[in-house]
Amino acid sequence: MRDMPGRPSRRGFLKGSVAGAALLPLAAQAAAQTKEEAPPLDQYEPVYLTADEWSFVMAACDRLIPSDGDGPGAIDCRVPVFIDRQLAGEFGKAETWYMKGPYAPAADPNLGFQSPLAPAEIYRQAIPLFQEWCRKSHGESFENLDVATQNSALTALQKGEVNLPPELRDFFAFLLANTKEGYFADPSHGGNYQMQSWAYIGFPGARGAYAEWVGRENAKYPLGPVALNGDRS
Amino acid sequence: MATRTDPKKDVVIIGLGWTGAIMGMELAQEGLEILALERGEDRDTVPDFQYPEMFDELKYGIRYGLMQKPAKSTLTIRRNLEETALPQRHLGSFLPGDGVGGAGSHWNGQTWRPQAVEYRLRSYVEETFGADIIPEGMQLQDWDVTAEELEPFHTKFENVAGISGLAGNINGKIQEGGNPFEAPRSADYPMPPLKNTWDSELFAEAARNMGYHPFPRPSGHASTAYVNDYGMQLGPCNYCGFCERFGCNNYSKSSPHVCILDALKRKPNFSYKTRSEVLQIEKAADGKTATGVTYFDERTGEQVFQPADLVLVCAYSLHNVHLLLLSGIGQPYDPVTGEGVIGRNYSYQMTGGTSMWFKDKQFNPFVGTGSAGMTIDDFSTSQIDFAKEGFIGGSYITGSHSGGRPIQQMSLPPGTPGWGSDWKQAIGEWYGHNMSIGSHGSDMAYRDTYLDLDPTYKDRHGRPLMRMTFDWKDNDIKMTQFMKTKIEEIAESLNPDIMASGYKSEGAAYDVRPYQTTHNVGGAIMGADPKTSALNRYLQSWDCHNVWVMGASAFPQNIQYNPTGALGGLAYWAAEALRKDYLPNPRPLV
Ligand SMILES: Cc1cc2nc3c(=O)[nH]c(=O)nc-3n(C[C@H](O)[C@H](O)[C@H](O)COP(=O)(O)OP(=O)(O)OC[C@H]3O[C@@H](n4cnc5c(N)ncnc54)[C@H](O)[C@@H]3O)c2cc1C
Ligand code: SF4
Predict the structure, then answer these.
(1) In angstroms, what CA-CA distances link B222 with A77, B242, B314, B404?
(2) What chain B residue is nearest to A6 in terms of C-alpha separation?
(3) In the 8-state DSSP scheme, what is residue B342?
(4) Ligand 1: which atom is nearest the Cα of residue B21?
(5) Burial letters B243-263, b for 16+ CB under 10 A, else e
(6) Mind telling me how many Å the CA of A6 is from chain B's nearest CA?
């Protein structure tokens, strides 16, 4: 493969990482690289979300993929940044979707998404309604509830017990899907910070060449992940 | 109405995917002036599929970077004649292609020929079991072409596409390790099979122990270096795990780009225009021929009339039917009277699967291809006693996986919560410990599964969207439930720690959201009788003899296999009829 100007050389990093893996444990490899530190999340300036929406998304992501136990959480992976960027972009605006009426948002869910609202607008309209429900049912907005109550509030939202109007009914589904996307997508989209989720589950990212590994029985692949920009974890 | 008329061509091709590229190449060899009109962007391996950008699961796998954009083109769907159809606002159930190469950029590459009985399913059922086993409303039809007639053309497609596999039946002689139930072939595949991943081997061993006949699934991925009939080169597959939904960065996946287009683009009598969406095929005053097509030139915003002597409709099955309906070529099908042919016999694909989780087995799931795997055809259409089992159809059954991309392909045991601490624990525990066995089966066409124009919703040009009326039927559900019992037996013999099955069960309603397959077939079907088919046996329109319609829209009902091998073979069969019989004397061939 030809090396393109400004592109990471595949040969180069594959060779480098094979050699590296043979000699060094993963942690040492990671330490050997200089990493650009991202600004702390509380200093991040959202492109789409308002301050209130941002604190809700932060709190919700923290429950959907918490930081406790094994593996990184959504906050460690900077998932809210991913969500903010997705909502500001093509996905949030439903740019590629068919958005002409008439609409039938209450139709059988099997017939698919039928809301007149694009995902970013669904977040915008659903968050205050859910917050109002939290205050009515639990006396506080979502961020201020204890963990157990937050979990039960999200469960109620997931089960449709929060009584959102039909055009907002996909809110939880989007929130959960976007959280997992931000956790697992390439870091260039703003989440999966330092490829922590990939390292946790053992997914090597954009390596893309495994001819030597086909058919191996019960042998764990030894190399850590690489990202689209050539970073290694 | 058109604001510009361009100079006349001998041939205009609508759509530049697999069938458009094949027809372009074959007719360019006749020295005709050919223009292909493609609605999407230009695409090639470099720069569009190159490393590392292609390895972006979010952009291509989840946000459908290479596929059709519903804002520009979609359809409406309902499950029965009473329901109001609603638009497919974003993609889900199926993912039509867009841009040069069509869905051939982002397909899996599973490349099959139909079984001999599938081409003459109605005759086979009547002769073998009697017409009275055919359920009320099921419109079984013959293709009016046989496996023997198509054999050389399947061979041609497999040689051009570069298929890796192992023959099971060469000229009637059963080959060890191949599929003993396939129709006789004249030769082996052009390349040996791909290597197997461990999960496929485990499946094959279990199936063999139960007396079945596992064989490597034929694959549109090069297992070795290969040069095809057009001088195009493929390099051995890297098992990269970013195959279906993605373009191949490695020149390994059979695609129109890698196998045909670079050779075709060098022909001086072939040209193509992108961002050119055909709006309508124009009919001559007598209604018996077409005069050309009108297309929307996205660059200039103009509607252009492109005159041509021959119109080849290669726009993917669904768009083929939509164009015929919009152009008034052939009588639209009416499900109440059963009359008319355009839209008739739409059908889909019936799939199901069983997943297994093993605490002590490590699979490295990211090592995968869109197509390799081990298959059994012991429960295929030709192997089942329909009278005894109470359904018509069959499935092939495969142990395989296509990749370990974490957003889309994370498979967790049943009962795992969808989020929270336990979900996170489970992804760490189970990623890489899962394998699955899938059935890929036939789907019959019925009186009320069809395509017509939607009365309400319009596209960006103000044309009615196409409306799909489709739901699962008892016959096909019985078939998949039968496969479930067979697959679960095999799966249990592997002693998984946990096992879970997903098959359509009684009363299942078609759900447009989860991806199932992009194997939408029928709607402009081939056959012997103009009353029940839109096309004759050469894929020539019964109504306008210079309009030929390629693709899976010609299938009278779905086969148990993925469609591209069949539609590739049919394209070469049609090209031969055009070259040898039609061009010297243009007329209805039948
Ligand atoms: C994710 C995925 C996996 C698949 N896996 C398999 C598999 O493993 N095995 C298999 O057999 N099949 C598979 N398929 C299906 C396979 O891709 C199709 O059968 C095949 O590509 C159809 O070829 P075609 O020439 O009919 O259409 P396409 O390849 O789709 O080409 C049609 C072209 O026409 C263009 N077009 C449409 N309308 C117009 C218009 N009005 N004007 C101008 N241009 C137009 C489109 O943009 C497109 O480029 C898969 C499909 C998908 C999406
Ligand atoms: S699995 Fe093979 S054929 Fe498919 S994209 Fe990767 S290298 Fe190409």
Answers:
(1) 38, 15, 25, 21
(2) B52
(3) B
(4) 25
(5) bbbbbbbbbbbbbbbbbbbbb
(6) 12
Per-residue pLDDT of chain B (590 residues; tens, 9 = 90+): 688 999 999 999 999 999 999 999 999 999 999 999 999 999 999 999 999 999 999 999 999 999 999 999 999 999 999 999 999 999 999 999 999 999 999 999 999 999 999 999 999 999 999 999 999 999 999 999 999 999 999 999 999 999 999 999 999 999 999 999 999 999 999 999 999 999 999 999 999 999 999 999 999 999 999 999 999 999 999 999 999 999 999 999 999 999 999 999 999 999 999 999 999 999 999 999 999 999 999 999 999 999 999 999 999 999 999 999 999 999 999 999 999 999 999 999 999 999 999 999 999 999 999 999 999 999 999 999 999 999 999 999 999 999 999 999 999 999 999 999 999 999 999 999 999 999 999 999 999 999 999 999 999 999 999 999 999 999 999 999 999 999 999 999 999 999 999 999 999 999 999 999 999 999 999 999 999 999 999 999 999 999 999 999 999 999 999 999 999 999 999 999 999 999 999 999 99
Q: Is the pTM of this model over 0.90?
A: yes
Buried b or exposed e, range A158-183, using 16+ CB within 10 angstroms: beeebebeebbbbbbebbbebbbbbb
Catalytic residue among B106, B154, B213, B519: B519
Nearest alpha-carbon partner for B251 in B274, B227, B218 = B227
Q: Mutation test of the interface with chain B: which of A210, A218, A226, A231, choosing the one with the most B Cβ atoms within 10 A?
A: A210
CB-defined contacts A:B, below 8 A: 189
Could you tell me which residues come within 8 angstroms of residue B118 by beta carbon, excluding any fewer than 6 positions away? B381, B442, B559, B560
In chain B, residues with a C-beta closer than 8 Å to the C-beta of A221 are 364, 366-367
Q: Which residues pair with B464 in a beta bridge?
A: B458
Which residues on neighbouring strands pair with residue B356, listed in sequence order? B435, B499
Q: Helical H runs in chain A?
A: 10-23, 26-32, 51-64, 79-88, 119-138, 147-158, 171-184, 196-201
